[in-house]
Write a structure and sequence with these properties.
By secondary structure, the chain is of the alpha+beta class. It contains 14 helices and 9 strands. The chain has helices at about 5-20, 45-55, 80, 130-140, 200-210, 220-230, 250-265, 270-275, 280-300, 305-320, 320-335, 340, 345-370, 375-385; strands at about 35-40, 65-75, 85-90, 95-105, 110-120, 145-165, 165-180, 180-195, 215. The protein has an 8-stranded antiparallel barrel, surrounded by 5 helices. The longest helix has 26 residues, at about 345-370. The chain starts with a helix and ends in an 18-residue tail after the last helix. The model is unreliable at about 1-30 (pLDDT under 50).
């Protein structure tokens, strides 16, 4: 049998095993699983062509197609959302599957903890869940009843690919999110790491971005759904002190600090798309400035040309947000200073009109930078470099001992 035939048969077996691997509540998992995934979006037709390029590359292996209907739940006061938990019940074929997800790392939203279990219906019957699942859900809700918040209807075509020693599920999701009389469309590629190193997932996403012009989508379906349900646009994400374990190694410190900066940067993309653009622009500049400082420090401690490369990239990217922020500060200075003291006259009106025009030009430049897939590739490349511990490649054996300090 040819190598291609063997590979196709292996892919089909793996796909079948993954499709049927839904935990049964009569046999609850001993520990929670870990989900590692990210999403890519693009102009109309781009995600479809990207998926076809991937799915059409494997002879004899056809993508799996499913219609997914999911209801997302929370308490009346949003306890789950407030604790970074998401609970949904999804109908897959004739099975109802409950899923609880939560953020495991503040510096990497692509990694989440996950429980899954079968339910007899689409109702959130906590009593029918495995003990560990129910305990975590109860702790997050405080025992308050769960209420339906929104639903998603998604047509999913999925295909498994092997890349860089990893197995990655590439899913084309097309559908919509519904919350009352409001709705939004969903059209994205979801990349989930099934086996292998997370660096391979970032590297594969970077290839997809480069070849098909796709961008990172910072918000999950659940985050978009809750934003729709409460009718509130995404808010800015401010800087936070990195949460570093007491015994963290230098390798881990680099990952945590770099990841925190990237989280702050990308989390402000959706907020910039909304009406409140002033603060998100500022927070993106802050994130890039913090990142540049961190990379400079790391490069002094562990000299590696990649640190300087990413630092230069961050500096260039930050320049796209400078004019908008500068005009924001200038307009506030004029309005809170001279205008407040002397009163508004035609001279101030002309000055402020010029400043507002320059600010709008700056917003257009910032929007263009975020729409450019090069910005997403910068994030993905840096994530992959950190995950691979790329700085180790330029160190002598005795210098590697520093990384355990």
């Amino acid at each position: 049998m040819s190598d291609n035939a063997n590979q196709s048969r292996t892919q089909r077996r793996l796909a079948a095993s993954l499709a049927s691997a839904i935990p049964d509540s009569s046999n609850p998992p001993a520990v929670a699983a870990r989900e590692i995934e990210l999403k890519l979006i693009g102009k109309r037709g781009a995600v479809e062509s990207a998926f076809e390029a991937v799915a059409g590359g494997a002879a004899g292996s056809k993508p799996r197609a499913r219609n997914l209907m999911s209801t997302y739940f929370d308490t009346a006061d949003g306890a789950l959302r407030g604790k970074n938990h998401v609970f949904r019940v999804r109908k897959v074929f004739n099975r109802c599957v409950a899923t609880l997800k939560w953020k495991q790392q503040a510096f990497n939203s692509h990694i989440r903890g996950e429980f899954e279990a079968r339910l007899p219906s689409m109702e959130p019957d906590v009593a029918a869940l495995p003990p560990k699942f129910a305990e975590r859900l109860h702790a997050a809700t405080g025992g308050e009843p769960l209420l339906a918040q929104f639903i998603t209807r998604i047509n999913r075509r999925a295909h498994l690919v092997n890349f860089g020693g990893a197995t990655i599920e590439v899913a084309l999701d097309i559908g919509a999110i519904f919350a009352g009389d409001r709705h939004m469309t969903v059209r994205e590629l979801e990349l989930e790491l099934k086996r292998g190193e997370i660096a391979a997932l970032y590297e594969f996403a970077e290839v997809m971005s480069r070849e098909h012009g796709l961008n990172l989508a910072p918000l999950t379906k659940s985050e978009r759904g809750f934003s729709l349900a409460i009718d509130q646009p995404p808010r800015e994400r401010r800087s936070r002190a990195p949460e570093t374990p007491a015994q963290a190694s230098l390798d881990e410190i680099i990952e945590i600090v770099t990841g925190e900066c990237l989280e702050q940067f990308t989390a402000n993309w959706p907020a910039f798309d909304g009406a409140r653009k002033t603060e998100p622009v500022h927070q993106m500049r802050v994130a890039l400035r913090r990142l540049r400082t961190a990379l400079s420090i790391f490069n002094r401690a562990l000299p590696n040309p990649q640190f300087e490369y990413f630092r230069a990239q961050a500096k260039s990217l930050a320049a796209a947000f400078g004019p908008t922020r500068d005009m924001d500060v200038f307009i506030a200075l004029v309005e809170d200073g001279p205008v407040a003291h002397y009163g508004r006259d035609s001279g101030f009106d002309a000055l402020l009109a010029t400043a507002v025009a320059r600010r709008e030009n700056g917003c257009a430049r910032a929007s263009a930078a975020l729409a450019d897939s090069q910005t997403s590739r910068f994030v993905l490349e840096l994530r992959a470099f950190v995950a691979r511990r790329g700085w180790r490649n330029s160190l002598e054996s005795d210098e590697l001992m520093k990384l355990d300090e």
